[in-house]
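lol so apparently i was supposed to do this last week
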Amino acid sequence: MPRVDGKTKLVGIIGYPLEHTLSPVIHNAAFDFLDLNWCYLPLPVEDMFLDEALNGLRVIKNFVGVNVTMPYKEKVLSCLDEISSCAQIVGAVNTIHIKDNKLIGYNTDGRGFLTALVNDGGFDPKDKNVLIVGAGGASRSVAVTLALSKVNELKILNRTKERAEEVCSLLRSNFACGVEAFDFGDDLESLFSSVDLIINATPIGMSVGEQPFPLDLISNKHFVCDLIYKPLETTLIRVAKNNGAKTLNGLSMLLYQGAAAFEIWTHLEPPIEIMCEALKKVLKSEES
Ligand SMILES: NC(=O)c1ccc[n+]([C@@H]2O[C@H](COP(=O)([O-])OP(=O)(O)OC[C@H]3O[C@@H](n4cnc5c(N)ncnc54)[C@H](OP(=O)(O)O)[C@@H]3O)[C@@H](O)[C@H]2O)c1
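anyway here it is w/ NAP bound
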């Protein structure tokens, strides 16, 4: 249990609902380990009160920042005083730093993904061809970060092609890499054989059954990432391993996006291993 007294610094997460958030576990474990008098709180806020809640936080002296989760990552933009250039391009914020009564927005999702890919996956995306399946918020964050990392080509495959096209035009107007949109009516065999890295940025795979794309398209020349972390091993990851591909699940992205927020708020190096152990413990207990 974190100690709480008159000097405790507060951070938290705004979203709705929040019953299943894992962020308090990650951050409170880090505060505990570093013996910091900080506490991370869930702050469930209904849609009609979002502005009021953020303006309230702005004036609370010991509130240092909040994470933002579904469904507010896009909506908070209009409430902020400053927005990092990356969050502006992505069009979504997942971390707010409160400084001198100002709300400053960042997006650490993409950075979390890239750190996970490089540190835990051992994969350098520079000059590689990448396929992202899905065209929602996570897809945009990952796509922008990969474009900043100088990938060769980014291909976006989505059920609704117009949304894939939207991600492509966002990329075209900001970056020089090649981009192309696809839907499931296109030639998937040649699409999959043209890429090195495949990323599932859809929620498909959280339960058994439906898969984000035909899994027999995965071969041993692919590196496969699933952004899903519940379950830790999705069918996609299991089959990809069986097909000889290298894989990475969504756990490390979750960890590193949290670690990046921790750094923004505390200016300290996050204790990654402690945060990771705390996260794995909860996820494993939820799975059993
Ligand atoms: N590991 C992490 O730290 C982390 C961070 C962020 C997100 N995530 C995970 O990433 C996933 C996507 O999140 P998001 O925020 O991007 O969600 P989102 O904005 O709602 O986008 C979901 C995407 O999945 C597609 N999709 C949804 N259901 C589908 C179905 N039944 N068949 C085909 N396509 C379907 C949607 O296609 P349409 O455009 O056609 O609707 C859309 O492109 C979630 O599982 C989330 O938990 C993980």
